[in-house]
Design brief:
By secondary structure, this protein is mainly alpha-helical. It has 2 helices and no strands.
Length: about 70
């Protein structure tokens, strides 16, 4: 998505942001954006780990595994 922007495009975006928001607000906006990304990353990690736990606790899978163990022992 962002591969086609390139360095000149990024510089242009930064200059426009600097003009619109000013030099005092730009660091605050950057910090807020960074915090938002960090929270989003933590939330997605939590969702993935919850999903992994659910797969391990699925009673249907354990029942099937028990049936396979019993048929293999006989």
């Amino acid at each position: 998505m962002f591969q086609s922007i390139g360095i000149p495009g990024l510089i242009l975006i930064l200059v426009i942001a600097l003009i619109i928001f000013g030099p005092k607000k730009l660091p605050e906006i950057g910090r807020a954006f960074g915090r938002t990304l960090t929270e989003f990353k933590g939330a997605t990690k939590g969702l993935v780990s919850d999903e992994d736990k659910r797969e391990g606790e699925n009673p249907e899978l354990t029942t099937i595994e028990k049936k396979q163990d019993k048929s293999g022992d006989a």
